[in-house]
Specification:
Main location: membrane
Structural class: alpha/beta
Subcellular location: Membrane
Largest sheet: 5 strands, mixed
Number of domains: 4
Strand order of the largest sheet: 1-2-3-4-5
Number of helices: 15
Radius of gyration: 31 Å
Shape: elongated
Pfam families: STAS, Sulfate_transp
Distance between the termini: 66 Å
Number of strands: 5
Strand content: 5-15%
Low-confidence stretches: none
Helix content: 55-70%
Protein name: Sulfate permease
Mean pLDDT: 83
Membrane topology: Multi-pass membrane protein
Amino acid sequence: GLVALTMAIIHFLPKLTTAVPSSLAAILVVTGLVIGLDLDTRNVLDYLKDMSGNLDATIAGGFPEFHIPQVPWTWETFTIIFPYALILAAIGLIESLLTLTLIDEITETRGHSNRECIGQGAANMTCGVFGAMGGCAMIGQSMININSGGRSRLSGITAAILLLAFILFAASLIEMIPLAALVGVMFMVVLGTFEWSSFRLMKRIPKSDAFVIVLVSGVTVVTDLAIAVCVGVIVSALVFAWEHAKHIYTSNYIDEQGSKVYELHGPLFFGSVKNFAELFDVANDPADVIIEFKHSRVADHSAIEAIDALAEKYTKAGKKLHLRHLSQDCQQLLAKAADLVEVNVIEDPKYKVASDKLA
């Protein structure tokens, strides 16, 4: 009931007045009801005691003191600390950039992502030498700020100063807030943040994209945001490779000299080399064959090896193969088919091939 009351106040109060932030009003009203009616419900202090196992637990604190961590400066220490530091930094940056993107969409403004990342990194390093916990921008708190009318830097600065003031001077007031009020506020944040339109898009977008969306959402809940993003990038890359592997094809014709011309269309890379090899009829092709790469692009070393293997098949069959419109990188990397490339300085494309042999 208290959760529903909190949500109702947050939803309906802005329709009556915006002089007071609806979230703050909801927390004050629900807290007042709990104290005034002496309702038996858990508050922030009860939660702290249960979580810490300490009956004297409190959120009250003091100013941090400068303190450099007393750890040995060894490689072993570095290998222990670095993975956790990397994960936390990645999670913090991803969360901050996602928050920045969301706020930009809501306010129709454009934030400075570089400034955000540099500022967050500098602040977290400073926190480290004061024994404090690092932090980042949070979607929930930012949404509460935006919904309460905050738009400028002053809103964020005010929130930080008030949070510090509560911890230093008014911890007992925060500890009295019912958990039901905080749950109601966060429920409204979730409802306001969630992209409900994505359910309608599920029927329109490719199934592979829908699968990635559901997978990343599930991994985020089960693990954390950093792992979810990594999984999403990997799965998206595999889906991209799978889809583009199907897009390679040839249009064939016999030219005036009687040579068979294969005009290759689509990207040639590790995912499409199998389909590429199946496009050619080495046994039944005439003595002179031309492969035209004008509408294709050779992407990696697997593609180079596929071209070399095809050239070897034509050579063993006693047939002459010509390769046209390959980039200079391709020509350098080809081993068995290098002599078959017809160089055209004006028309040959210029692009790089992903291969360690060019390093």
